[in-house]
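U., I forgot to send this yesterday:
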Amino acid sequence: MKSMSLRAQRSNLDQSEIPQSEMAAAPFGRLAMTAEALNRCVGLRAVVIASAAKQSRSIGIPPGKIARRLAGASQCIVALAFDDVRCHRLAMSENDLRPGEVAVELPARTDAGIYFIGAIHTPWKTRQECPKRGSPDGPICTIVVDERWREGLSRLAAHKRVQVLYWMHQARRDLVLQTPFRKETTGTFALRSPVRPNPIASSIVELVAINGTSLQVRGLDCLDGTRLVDLKPDNTAG
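Result:
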């Protein structure tokens, strides 16, 4: 069976995982599967394309594992449409470029320093797990401010929402043009992508509680261990 390199995590499927009753007969061979069968085996929204007959069918499926191989699928190509992918560069190497993207040489030195004031602890250990954006009903995350900045938290508890600035340490910094999946090539400063010269992200979060130098919040979308740049009260909160 032929396979192709996919920009995603892969897992091999054993043919025994897919009952033959769920393989639909088709002019291009035993390619088509029911959405129910794929639901159990594959995790992202997939587009299955049969190269033999130049036919395709789209199947919507929830997040989970991605099949590298579809059992019994002869001469097929599996292309994954990452509508629900948390970051479109999950499995790209550091130097890979999408069509239309342009990278520039970074300056020889930085212009200023930065003090990280703490760290953020979330449930997400990998970029694959990380949500694309924070949700007000998401899990409670913990922001731990370094002890030297303790007094800076005075009166912050009076605010319902807080703006959190943090450093996206795994993002590349040299792209001036980016091609988001299924979108037109666009300038970096016209996107909210974490890929930017200074990968500083901003989230407005709900402040649940403050205990010493630890803040309990909802609405973050970053990896566990992300470094904290700044905290500001959200004065637009009602």
